Amino acid sequence: MTDAYLAIDGLTKAYPGVVANDDVSFAIAPGQIHALLGENGAGKSTLVKMIYGLVKPDKGQMRVNGTPFEPANPHAARGAGVAMVFQHFSLFDALDVSENIALGMDNPPPMRELAQRITDVSEAYGLPLDPTRRVGDLSAGERQRVEIIRCLLQNPKLLVMDEPTSVLTPQEVEILFKTLNKLSDEGTAILYISHKLEEIRALCDHATVLRLGKVVGECNPREKSARELAEMMVGQTLHTPSRDYAEPGDVLLTVEGLTLAPANEFGTRLRDVAFELRAGEVLGIAGVAGNGQDELLAALSGERTTKPDAVRLKGIPIGRHGPNARRAAGLLAAPEERLGHAAAPEMSLTENALLTGDIREQLTTNGFVAWSKARDFAGKVIEAFDVRTPGTETAAGALSGGNLQKFVIGREILQRPEVLVVNQPTWGVDASAAAAIRQALLDLAAQGAGVVCISQDLDELMEISDRISALTEGRMAPPRPAKGITIEEIGLMMGGAHDMHEAHPEEANA
Amino acid sequence: MDSINPILLIASLMVASTPILLAALGEMVVEKAGVLNLGVEGMMITGAVVGFAIGVNTGSSWAGFAIAAIAGAGLSMIFAIITQMLLSNQVATGLGLTLFGLGLSSLIGKPYVGMKAPGFAKLDIPVLSDIPVLGPILFRHDPMVYLSLAAILGVWYLLTYTRAGLVLRAVGENHNAAHALGYKVVRVRFMAIAFGGAMAGLGGAYVSLVRVPQWVEGMTAGAGWIALAIVVFASWRPWRILLGAYLFGGITVLQLNLQAAGSTVPVEYLSMSPYLVTILVLVIISVRGNHGAPGSLGRVFHASH
Question: DSSP states of A79-92 as a string?
Fold first, then answer.
């Protein structure tokens, strides 16, 4: 492997109680697009942090162009030609684009010159970006461009991308892939981390699969099916959610003329949202985060109240009702943010079960908590949804993302909702847990409940929805039957081209 | 009310505002770095007593100011170690610091009660101070008044145009991101906290050495809390700190003048007016919604990688 740009040999990193990386070895050649695959907790993030100098390995070594590479900090890693685009949290909302980029550079030029270079690079790689805009006002795709351009300005030899497409529209993904292919042609090596297997098959020429901190396989992803890749990741056979399509029943939930001002500066205004949800139906709502998803969930769950007629449950106006009144009426919700919104991280699973289950499961009497009933209910959720946890008294924050998500969704489903609203039900959840959650939503619909599933994951929506719509800048496209719909058509809905669909009535596509 | 002289009023306004201006500017830098230090009052009063003691013993107000700044910074380091290294809650620690500073200052100050400050000469800028109206208002103050204005200019320039200022704002805006990019979050915060402590110490010393000028127990009388409020009032912007401090100082001076002029309004109402106005202004600002608070303000940072 003398021609490799970065060679990793026997890298090991242990944290108390867990070996995050165990004897990991692989190599990346210049110009190669190398995928790093693995479930949550497989050790991808730790590995990348070691390459970027944020974490020091316990054992093993890395070489860059044959010379030992031991970055003490990110500055040293950048000096050696390694640049990284983070999955979350490396941008500063209150600062403008050039300030954000300057912070990621070791010797930034004066601001005016930097702004010019940003414009030049963004044009050269087809990533339009205005250097004077405040980052808090940008879309997710634009925010990612800020990070990519920040990296490109340093002429990296290796670009590390951690889950870059999870927040992008299909069209934006296409632009990103063009940029990455161009970089690869210029000789830049790319380490691409994702759990979206179709993307990896389209983009990458080599893949290393991690499971529980160990390398369990290397392959050319183009020669494997997505299913084979997933099974390498999980180490077991995957089961695809299945369902029987049934005729939808009566209208359960009617939303009409729902207009809602944003709750905060970075929120989105809902504009005249309208849809109907029938019994036994799953309505999928696509859209990139920040287009009104959180606001829609809040308006449906009762966190934000609206005019009474905007939300009707079985014909009864509930727009003015708060969350508990809606729960009592049969409308339950599971918001996106697991820690802090759907669950209180410092509180035990029993207490978390009590927080939403109280009303429908009668877990309190005369204001006193019936702890044994609450514990039983939490235990039922844990058992029914295969939540891996030491017990009901574990703090919610101590569970892994996937397990907590199963708990949060399960807690609502076991309360026998008539309508369940979920936002990003499988975000950041590994493949097998995601499959379990989707199956549970489908089973719920099969029992006659209505499910509204707000998600950015289009594959997920196409898998479970009966009808699909999209939210764009707070407007909702008219729902269309999911059967036969293509990713491109959903992409167009997300792009806001609603008029096109109104010009072609639904029958034409059915 | 004819006895109120507008020229003297504005001139004394600048003097009355200087302590809270200094303390508020220091606290603004601390908060820009994402740290909420509620110990301003404690650091001010410690600066007041230390500055006074050194001033009396050395006969030099300059020495008093210098040591007061060091004392304020030293006290703030207790806060820094507890919140940044031991990761304690910033609100509780800051309140503790205020109580500690109040107690410590009365202990140190006991022997100095009733003594006279060494005095601090006003600059009498030739030519400029002879300009009618403007001369007495602007050009006949002591050096600390001009230093406080220079400090505003300096902080504004540093935050807006330098890399150090950009890093400081970045750390306060999103400490996880700043850490991921390789900036030393804790080190930046230590420096900001020390600066805030030194400025609060200077502000306190100005009260005991110039404004009053003697040592009285508890003499800062809530100025540190007003400084904290002014930071919010100013939406974390240096020039608005100046506006806020002078507005508050102006009301304080005006109510004193009204009392002296024999206003028929009871004294108690006049004395509470600056605080009422502060509350009112804060309410108005809060109604406008988010007004530029640093994103990581008051949050505990732990580099858990």
Answer: HTTEEEE-SSS-S-
Output the pLDDT for position B281.
76
The answer, yes or no, to whether residue A500 has pLDDT greater than 70, is no
Q: Which tens digits make up the pLDDT trace of A279-326? A: 999 999 988 777 888 889 999 999 999 999 999 999 999 999 999 999
Chain A hits for B178, Cβ within 8 Å: 92, 103
B134 lies in a domain?
Answer: no
Please state the domain count of chain B. Answer: 1
Q: Is A185 on the interface with B (CB under 8 A)?
A: no
- pLDDT digits over B246-303, tens only? 988 888 888 888 888 887 888 788 778 777 877 887 788 777 766 678 888 988 888 7
Opening angle at CA B73, ends B69 and B74, nearest 5: 115
Long-range contacts of A360-369 (CB under 8 A, 24+ apart): A360/A327, A360/A328, A360/A332, A360/A415, A360/A416, A361/A415
On chain A, the residues whose CB falls within 8 A of the CB of B188 are: none
CA–CA min distance B173, chain A (Å): 6
Kindly list the residues from chain B whose CB atom is less than 8 angstroms away from the CB atom of residue A103.
166-167, 170, 178, 181, 183
Q: Tell me, what CATH number does B259's domain have? A: 1.10.3470
Interface test with A, best of B163, B175, B181 (most A CBs within 10 A): B181
Q: What range does the domain containing B73 cover?
A: 6-112+141-287
Report CB contact under 8 Å: A265, B290: yes
Cα separation, A147 vs A160, in Å, equals 11
Average of per-residue pLDDT values in chain A? 85
Write down the residue that tokens 């847990």 correspond to: A433
A-B CB pairs within 8 A amount to 57
> Would the CB atoms of B182 and A264 count as touching at under 8 Å?
no
Write the pLDDT tens digit of every residue in A202-225: 899 899 988 888 888 888 988 888
Q: pLDDT per residue over B151-182, tens digit each?
A: 999 999 999 999 999 999 999 999 988 988 88
C-alpha distances in angstroms, A66 versus A6, A48, A77, B97?
8, 19, 15, 54
CA distance A473 to A272: 11
Weakest-pLDDT range from A162-166, A454-458, A490-494, B2-6: B2-6
Q: Which helix (H) or strand (E) holds A297?
A: helix A293-301
CA dist., res. B16 & res. B144, Å (int): 12
Domains in chain A, CATH or no CATH each = 6-234 (3.40.50.300), 251-346+413-509 (3.40.50.300)
State the complex-level ipTM.
0.81
pLDDT for residue A244 is more than 80:
no
Question: Is there a domain that residue B277 lies in?
Answer: yes
Whether B281 maps to a domain, the answer reads yes
Q: Is A23 left (phi over 0), alpha (psi -120 to 50) or beta?
A: left
For the segment A338-397, what is each residue's pLDDT rounded down to a tens digit?
A: 877 889 988 999 999 999 998 898 898 888 999 999 999 999 999 998 888 888 888 888
Query: Would the CB atoms of B289 and A264 count as touching at under 8 Å?
Result: yes
CA distance A164 to A148: 10
Residue B2's pLDDT is what?
55
Percentages (nearest 5) of helix, strand, coil residues in chain A: 35, 25, 40
| pLDDT bucket at A504, cuts 50 / 70 / 90 | very low
Q: According to DSSP H, which parts of A398-505 are helical? A: 401-413, 431-446, 458-464, 487-494, 498-503
Residue B304 lies in a domain: no
Written as one string, the DSSP assignment of A19-83 is EEEEEEEEEE-TT-EEEEE--TTSSHHHHHHHHTTSS--SEEEEEETTEE---SSHHHHHHTTEE
**Cβ(A457)–Cβ(A487) under 8 Å?**
no
3 state SS of A207: strand
* Alpha carbon distance A370, A362 (integer Å): 9
